[in-house]
Amino acid sequence: MNTPRFQKIFLLLGSSVLGIFIAAVTIGIFLFRSEVMHQILQRDGILLTNVARYLHETGEASSLANWDLVELAAGSSQIEGIIAVRVFRPVETLVEQVPDSLYAVSLAEEDRQLLQDGKPVIRYFEAYPLYSLFSGIEEFDLEESAPLVEVIAPLLDEAGHTTASIQYWLDGTEVSTEFAQLDRQLMFLGLIFVLGGGTLFSIVFLYARKRLTGMAALLTQRNESLERANADLAMAARTSAIGSVSSHLFHGLKNPLAGLKAYLQVTAKDEEAVAITDRMQSLIDETLSVLRDENTAPETDLSFEDLMQMAGTRLDSISSSRNHPVNLSGSGSGSYPSRKLQLVLLILRNLVENAVEASPAKSPVQVELEGSETQLEIRVRDAGPGLPESVKEKLFEPVISSKSGGTGIGLAISATLARHVPATLELVQSDTGGTTFSLKLSQ
């Protein structure tokens, strides 16, 4: 799972979630902004509506022509900034307007419907074209456009019916300033939300990525372990089949082989045939000894010196039968279970046989033993050309042997025996200077 494709998908998923979060924050701020702006406009609109209704109910606004825009505020500074007023009765007919430079217009149909229902109309224009509101705007020393607030207040009779409507046009500079301040505050708030949420999300994202990567690595490791276990089971099936018949086979071969050896020694002059017969006899005896010890022999401990002596005997036999030098050296101490050492010596024989085959004639095979109370290590080094890369990749797996009559399971069996000890068999070095294998047994 920890692949470029997985990383790309995970990054895309994280970016999508972060994008959704930012979009949600933006939409939330926009909706909140709209609601606050609506409340600000409602504040001014309701105030003017209440003032208009008060003037209407007390009779103080009997004639619009007598109104002074400052007096219209009824002494309240909160309604300063009115620049124009129109009066409609009830909602269709324009009755009066101040100042006279206002264009005479009718109310829109949707506005009239709201006013008939007793509801005020409140709007904000960020840049309203004053030339569409006034004729001769130069008289007012105003810009061509300006922020304006439009409020249309219905005046109701005792029965709740709309008898008249007053349209106020207010200078929207103060409202525009409030909106700008609101935008700055919301932008700052949104930035805090995005940075804070983004930071928190990044922490969670990185933690989740770390956990998933760890889980992926663990899953990969378990898959590899499962594959190795399956390979071990397959190998065990092959080796167990060999082991189940080897005892009977070797017992059956032992006596005929002894007779063949005696016959060759008396009648034949072929020294190589005699040597091969000796190797076969030695291998059969050693294997039968291991099988017998595994099943019946009591467990005993052998010293490092005992191991050196046993290894020397077997290596001398290999060197003599192959007519190839094998040098044994070692130092150390400690004691080791005899059953484990029997398997270790079988592995050693296999490694040395392979090393002899890989080394040029007369080039000695080096065997080194190092022992302690906690560990035993055996190194076998040949003088061959090194292993091909294709062989290194599947060194301890059963393969098709390139040797005539070979089974292709020599090193694989050695690795299986090492795991049975248990011990560790590994390739230490392999180049043009030779190949070195290490077998480690921990106490």
Automatic annotation (TrEMBL):
Residues 248-443 form the Histidine kinase domain. The keyword Coiled coil does not apply. It catalyses: ATP + protein L-histidine = ADP + protein N-phospho-L-histidine. The chain crosses the membrane at residues 9-32, 186-208. It comes from the Bacteria. InterPro entries: 2C_sensor_his_kinase, HATPase_C_sf, HATPase_dom, His_kinase_dom, Sig_transdc_His_kin-like_C. Its EC number is 2.7.13.3. One of its GO terms (molecular function) is protein histidine kinase activity. Keywords: ATP-binding, Kinase, Membrane, Nucleotide-binding, Transferase, Transmembrane, Transmembrane helix. It is an enzyme of class 2 (transferase). The keyword Kinase applies. PANTHER family: SENSOR PROTEIN CREC, SENSOR PROTEIN RSTB. This is histidine kinase. The lineage of its organism: Bacteria, Pseudomonadati, Verrucomicrobiota, Opitutia, Puniceicoccales.
